[in-house]
Amino acid sequence: MLPVTVVPSLPAGSLAEIEALCSALKGVAREVQIDIVDGVYVPHKSWPFTESGGMEHFEEMRQYTKDFLLEVDCMVQNPEQYLDTIAALHPSRVCIHAGSTSAYDEIIAHAYTYGYKLGFAFTNDTSLDLLEQYFDDIFYVQLMGIKEVGQQGQPFDERTLDRARLLRTRYPEFEIAVDGSVNAQTIPLLYAAGVNRFAPGSAIAKTESPKVAYKQLQALLD
Q: Per-residue pLDDT tens for 42-55?
C-alpha cells in the first residue's frame, strides 16, 4: 500500500522564511519540500536565487536537514548544473520539471549515484510522454495543481484531478504527488482521484500557526 504523506512546501523569498517554517514544524512534520526558482525557467525567483551568488547559498540549508527529510523541487532551467550542490545536502528527493532540460539520462544517472529519489513534475499543459519514456528510472511523478509554477496562491487547476485519475488507473502502484493549490478543499478531491503525496504551500506556510495547519491537513487523510 502506498504511503499517504503531507509535505509542507515553500518557494521562500529568504532563508529566514525557511527558518520560520522549519522552526514551527520541528518535531511535527518529518519532511519539507523546498522549491528553488531561478527566474529563468519561470518569471519568478525564490531563495537562494533572491540573493547574489544564487545556489552558492544553498549550503545554508544544511542546518535543517538534521530535523527534516529534504525534498528539492527544481523549478530551474537545466537543473543538472545544480545537482552536485543539492546532493551535498543528502536530500531524500529531487524533483525536476519536464521541459526544463534535455539531460534526463545524465540526471537519472546522478540520482542513482547519489541515492536520492528522483521525480518528474508536469503541468497540465505538458505531455506525459516523458513519464512513459523514463517510468522505470524515476520514483514518483509530481502533478502541478496550478497553471503557472513557481508562485504560491494561485487557483486550483481542475484538470489535475483528471490527470491524477488517468495516472492512477495506468500506474496503480506508482507514487503520485501534487504541488500547487493543495489545501483543505482540494486534498479530499485529490486523494479520491488517486494522489498519495500532498505538498501544501501557503495553506501551511502562510498561516498564523503552520503547526496547527499541518495537523489539520494531515487529519483529512488519517
A: 989 999 999 999 99
Give this prediction's pTM.
0.96
Q: Look at phi and psi of residue 65 and say left if phi exceeds 0, alpha if psi is from -120 to 50, else beta.
A: alpha
The pLDDT tens digits of the residues spanning 196-220 come to 999 999 999 999 999 999 999 999 9
Q: State the Cα–Cα distance between residues 40 and 45, nearest whole angstrom.
A: 8
